[in-house]
Amino acid sequence: MKPAGISGIYKEGICERQIDELAMSSKNKNIRDLYRGINDFKRGYQPRSNSVKDENGDLLADSHSILNRLKNYFSQLLNVHRVNYVRQLEIHTAESLVPDSSPFEVESAIAKLKSLSHTLMLVPNLHWIVIEDAESPSSLVGKLLKNSGIAYTHLTAATPKQWKLREKESNWKKPRGVLQRNTALQWIRNNLKADVAQGVIYFADDDNSYGLEVFEEMRDTQMVSVWPVGLAGGLMVEMPVLDPKTGHVTGWNSAWRPERPFPVDMAGFAINLSHFLKHPEAKFSFNVESGYQESEILRHLVTQEQLEPKADNCTRVYVWHTRTEAPKLQSEKQLNKKGLKSNAGIEV
Ligand SMILES: *[C@@H]1O[C@H](CO)[C@@H](O)[C@H](O)[C@H]1NC(C)=O
């Protein structure tokens, strides 16, 4: 369930420009509170029980973050003050980098990122780690993050040339987002301590659609929690199969590469932060086959038996793998040939 106040606006197609104008009017915090207000109103007021105070009585955010490769995001719940870290990691690479993405790619990535940010604005105690696939952080992404009012960390990790997709190459031929997700995981390891940090790590993606329930379901993850993902792996729903007696995960309904140790989508699991920090070997790899990234990190963290099923014993769908096609923009290309553009003076 998405709050009607928001999905309604998107459906009418007024969407981002209007929200953006509002957000730009220096009232971002108020707007965020307003959205939360709508949300509280719709589900009835519930006191927020997940905030934590530190020894000084300051509010700590049991928060949540996301990694971005402009297309891949990563998120986690962290125990941090509401401070915006802006820090750039140096990624050492001997390879020359391919030229910047085309303006179309950048603009559609920004539009999708903005859409995701409007979902994340509704999630309490969230820390968003965004990793930009670039040599230096772009002001577009920086501005978007700042205007969102979400606590965030903006990092960069540029994908070396030989790892980038060539035009027309299917997107599963080369591992996407590995370097960026690992950059975020390393940032977490550098900045947080096991047993002190409280929170949950979740990998989000601007191609997905998130019901707000998924962020609540994952909050009490002890090691690794799992749940169904709609429209994933060529199925209406891809999900863990539970033993009705014990409630433990005994298998999966996956159709695509069901032989994978953990045939689960990136959107279908969350990891306890302290548990992650105690397993330094847990990360993604360039040396695994397509579809094995989830298994690669999870094999260091959990056994199938230990997985914690969420979403009413995996009977509910709160996240959808709604992969969007790259927009075709044929008419825009024709305009461009004439030296014109539909978005002159307007940030889409
Ligand atoms: C989930 O399944 C377990 C074991 O069958 C049961 O004890 C529990 O009540 C179920 N929980 C929900 C929320 O349905």
UniProtKB/TrEMBL annotation:
<dbReference type="InterPro" id="IPR029044">
    <property type="entry name" value="Nucleotide-diphossugar_trans"/>
</dbReference>
<dbReference type="GO" id="GO:0046872">
    <property type="term" value="F:metal ion binding"/>
</dbReference>
<feature type="site" description="Interaction with galactose moiety of substrate glycoprotein">
    <location>
        <position position="238"/>
    </location>
</feature>
<dbReference type="GO" id="GO:0000139">
    <property type="term" value="C:Golgi membrane"/>
</dbReference>
<dbReference type="InterPro" id="IPR005027">
    <property type="entry name" value="Glyco_trans_43"/>
</dbReference>
<dbReference type="GO" id="GO:0005975">
    <property type="term" value="P:carbohydrate metabolic process"/>
</dbReference>
<feature type="binding site">
    <location>
        <position position="207"/>
    </location>
    <ligand>
        <name>Mn(2+)</name>
    </ligand>
</feature>
<feature type="glycosylation site" description="N-linked (GlcNAc...) asparagine">
    <location>
        <position position="313"/>
    </location>
</feature>
<keyword id="KW-0812">Transmembrane</keyword>
<dbReference type="GO" id="GO:0015018">
    <property type="term" value="F:galactosylgalactosylxylosylprotein 3-beta-glucuronosyltransferase activity"/>
</dbReference>
<keyword id="KW-0808">Transferase</keyword>
<keyword id="KW-0464">Manganese</keyword>
<keyword id="KW-0479">Metal-binding</keyword>
<comment type="pathway">
    <text>Protein modification; protein glycosylation.</text>
</comment>
<dbReference type="GO" id="GO:0050650">
    <property type="term" value="P:chondroitin sulfate proteoglycan biosynthetic process"/>
</dbReference>
<keyword id="KW-0333">Golgi apparatus</keyword>
<comment type="similarity">
    <text>Belongs to the glycosyltransferase 43 family.</text>
</comment>
<feature type="active site" description="Proton donor/acceptor">
    <location>
        <position position="294"/>
    </location>
</feature>
<protein>
    <recommendedName>
        <fullName>Galactosylgalactosylxylosylprotein 3-beta-glucuronosyltransferase</fullName>
        <ecNumber>2.4.1.135</ecNumber>
    </recommendedName>
</protein>
<dbReference type="Pfam" id="PF03360">
    <property type="entry name" value="Glyco_transf_43"/>
</dbReference>
<keyword id="KW-0735">Signal-anchor</keyword>
<keyword id="KW-1133">Transmembrane helix</keyword>
<keyword id="KW-0472">Membrane</keyword>
<keyword id="KW-0325">Glycoprotein</keyword>
